[in-house]
Amino acid sequence: MALSKNAMMGIAVAVIAVIVIIAAVVIVNNNSGDNPYPKEGVTITTFTDYNGNTAEVTFTKVPDRVVCGCNTALNLLLYLGLGDKIVGVYYDEEEVWDEVKEEYDKLVKRIGETDASGAKHLSGNISTDVLLSWQPDLVIGWVSWNENGLGTEKFWNDNGCNVMSFNTMTSNAYRTVQLTKVDYDNVGKIFNIPEKTSAVYSDLIDVLNEITMKMKGKDTLYYALVDGAVNVEKGTVWVYKNTNFIASVLNSMGMTNAFPDGGTVSLAKVYEVIGTTNIDMLFFITYGGVTYEKSLKSWQDDADLSKCDAIKQKHTLEMKLSCSYGTSPELLVFMKEVYEYVSKLV
Q: Could you give the CA distance from residue 68 to residue 87 in angstroms, rounded to a whole number?
């Protein structure tokens, strides 16, 4: 029996309604896939200066136009497979880490060589105007999120961008390995990869625990974190104090910073330390033109510094500045080398 005109129209309306509902479900599901955040978004707390001031930063979507303002952030994002989200880099002042070189080379093809004309890739600092022109939706950099720096968190938020700094680089208190966990957890939440960031942190803790066990019940080992070559003209060296991240971690495992107060230390004081407590391990911080080779040679060429056990026994290591701030995954490699030295010394 043929359907009436009204019946056919009713069926057509019902079909259209079903299509609309299916389309709505597909759209919702697609949006959920693109934005895995909860309705309220993801909120983290970041330092805005070195005085302990902070700001809450809320993310409503996963960033896909990230600018890295330090090698620590650059290494971490490349290591986590997030290189395709990076649209610019500044303060790229270190040799690329071998572990991420392939990803780094891909990035350079997109953003240009360091300091090349027109490249979104700088070895030094950046101005607010240039950073704005790169149109980021997230900048991870040194603490400069204030009116005297690159602009406040609110300023950037008003320009459609979030900003953050790593806790291990900016806390005005002791920078501990617990702050590394906070940094990794934040990155995991922001980019919706908590399993990856948790795994990196877990691997680091495993090595730190192994070192701690090696040191348990043993006499302390003395170390120094040296920044740059000996200043022969002034007769000084520059060393990191106990609030530095690496110093804090080494101390927690039973080692002792030979220069706990850090800063500029006279050679006379260094000679005194070598003559009393000695120094078992030397870690030379490198960045820009500050190289491991130059720093090491300056100690080897000094008659009294060369008497140091670390120099005589060749217990010296290079540590990139980004690694010394604790959130770079390269720290895991460094700590494995420390474990080898500790195993020999105790």
A: 8
* pTM score of the predicted model: 0.86
Our measurement of the distance from residue 77's CA atom to the centroid of its chain's CA atoms, rounded to an integer in Å, reads: 9
Distance CA 108, CA 87 (A): 10
SS3 116: coil
Which tokens hold the place of 231?
A: 């200043």
Please tell me the least confidently modeled range out of 33-37, 282-286, 317-321.
33-37
Phi first, then psi, for residue 300 (nearest 5°) are -65, -30
pLDDT digits over 155-177, tens only?
999 999 999 999 888 876 668 88
Burial of 112 from C-beta contacts in 10 A (0-12 / 13-18 / 19+): middle
Asked if 276 and 207 touch (Cβ cutoff 8 Å), the reply is: no
Residue 215, Cβ neighbours under 10 Å: how many? Answer: 18
The pLDDT of residue 34 is 67
Provide the greatest CA pair distance for the chain: 111
Q: Which domains does the chain have, with CATH numbers?
A: 42-165 (3.40.50.1980), 201-345 (3.40.50.1980)
The total of other beta-carbon atoms located within 10 Å of residue 346's CB is 16
Q: Are the C-beta atoms of 297 and 285 separated by less than 8 Å? A: no
Q: Per-residue b/e over 257-294, b at no fewer than 16 CB within 10 Å?
A: bbbeebeebebeebbebbeeeebbbbbbbbbeebbbee
Among candidates 90, 82, 87, which has minimal Cα distance to 65? Answer: 87
For 89, the enclosing helix (H) or strand (E) is: strand 86-89
pLDDT band at 180 (very low <50, low <70, confident <90, very high): very high
Residue 341, pLDDT above cutoff 80: yes
User: Distances in Å between the alpha carbon of 50 and those of 125, 144, 163, 165?
Assistant: 18, 9, 15, 11
pLDDT in tens, 45-57: 988 888 888 889 9
Evaluate if residue 198 carries a pLDDT over 60: yes
Give pLDDT tens digits for 112-123.
Answer: 999 999 999 999
Rounded-to-integer distance, Cα 193 and Cα 8, Å? 51
